[in-house]
Amino acid sequence: MKRVSALLALALGLAAIPAEAASLADLAFLEGNWTSDRSGFVIEESWTDAEAGVVVGMSRGTQDAAVRFLRFAVVEQQGDAVVMRFKRYHPDYSSWETGGPSVMRLARVEAGEAVFEATDAASDVQRIVYRVRPDGAIDVTADRTDEKGPYLVEFTLRRTG
């Protein structure tokens, strides 16, 4: 009954679904192929549907006909939690992450919005927000930190094909 109430609230846009009640179905708005062009820096993302309890996301960043980064993400249901694991790769396919993958937990989900937060305070990515715009595009915001300090990565994905 709790799940039915949460889905009804989502459908009506009335309230956020608590993360512990979220499921992979709440991420269906990400399915498909997307692209963003920020002054010649092109980000392409592809997200699968939730087959066998797993959503797979792949990203490629290119600029000046050269690969700048690759990312492979797996999102899965783990009990009451939705967890994203991802690894990023340099153009030579060496990994950005020195240990295992970065791990994020779906912290909040509302109609057309998903917020993932890092499970490790030392992660260089602390939060990723996917938010659907009225025109169907998706605004993506990532809170990151590097040797210079914290900063935001922001881009808008538009559906392709």
Give a quick set of tags describing it.
161 residues, mainly beta, Lipocalin, ten-stranded antiparallel beta barrel, globular, disordered N terminus
What's this model, at a glance?
The protein is mainly β and 161 residues long.
Task: Write the topology of this structure.
Elements: H1 2-12, E1 17-18, E2 32-38, E3 41-47, E4 54-63, E5 66-78, E6 81-89, E7 102-110, E8 113-118, E9 125-132, E10 138-146, E11 149-159
Descriptive overview:
Helix content is 7%, strand content 57%. It has 161 residues and is mainly β. The chain has one domain: Calycin beta-barrel core domain (Lipocalin, Beta Barrel), CATH 2.40.128.20. A ten-stranded antiparallel β-barrel has the order 2-3-4-5-6-7-8-9-10-11. A hairpin with a 2-residue loop joins strand 5 and strand 6.
What is the number of helices?
1
Secondary-structure element order, as H and E? Answer: HEEEEEEEEEEE
Order of strands in the sheet with most strands: 2-3-4-5-6-7-8-9-10-11
Shape: globular
Low-confidence stretches: 1-15
